Amino acid sequence: MKKNLLIILFITTLIFSFSNNAEAITAGTDMGEINLSFGLNANHYPNLTNQIAEKYDLSEPSYSWGYYFNVKQWIGEETYLGFIKDNLPWALGNLAIGFEHDYLSVDFGDDEEIRVDNASYLLNFAYRLSALSSFFPEDLLLNYYWGFHQARFVRDGEAKLENDENIWSGKVGLEFNRDLFDLWVIEDLALNTRLNYRFINHDQHSNPEVELDFSGFEASLGINMTF
Question: Please, is 135 exposed, middle or buried when counting C-beta atoms within 10 Å of its C-beta (0-12, 13-18, 19+)?
Fold first, then answer.
């Protein structure tokens, strides 16, 4: 798991460092904004919850809670020494690349007899849908995430599985930011709302007790900051 995390962080660092080098060389030009967002998410994974509730005769939770942290940079005219401007003009101001970490936990039973945790470390590619049509609001984004996940299955306080295998998967969805300046006179802050579908399936052979299938929907609410 540590090796995979280092790979994701290394790629993200390269993305931002190349952009910053370009900024140093071409001072005063458009490098693209950086967005930092964080908040809470509610998750619904029927494949996972139905299976565990039936197998262990426990009450099935309707959803689970978690959190997310995301940072991404929008492509500007001089990002990567102007390579994007010269070769991919459609991406200017419309494409962002970044990193996301999210975490969720599902509890079963009144005494938390079973708990399932999942942590994700993902590359994030975001595209501004208003570039396709004026029908879409400017701050409506299409997001694609790809990376790896680590799951833990705990029964009666004892960890039955702590998965360190390479489990590559991701999620896709929509994100909308409502500028708080319009609401409370707070500049550079926005209300961050998201709806994603996660596609992930931990191989049943890695856990003799249950298949950890986290495929399902995620709804998030948080704050977005622009730099």
Answer: exposed
Is residue 108 within 8 Å of 54, Cβ to Cβ? no
pTM exceeds 0.90 for this model: no
Tell me the CA distances in angstroms from 128 to 65, 82, 93, 160, one per residue in order: 28, 20, 8, 42
Beta bridge partners of residue 40, listed in sequence order: 67, 221
Contact 11, 123 (CB under 8 A): yes
Supply the DSSP symbol for 205: G
The CATH number of 2-226 is 2.40.160.20
CA–CA separation, 151 vs 71, rounded Å?
23
Total residue length of the chain = 227
Q: Where are the domains of the chain?
A: 2-226
Contact 198, 218 (CB under 8 A): yes
Could you read off the pLDDT of 163-206 as tens digits, one per residue? 655 678 899 999 999 887 655 556 678 999 999 999 876 655 45
What residues have CB less than 8 Å from 200, skipping those under 6 apart?
A: 118, 149, 167, 169, 170, 171, 213, 214, 215
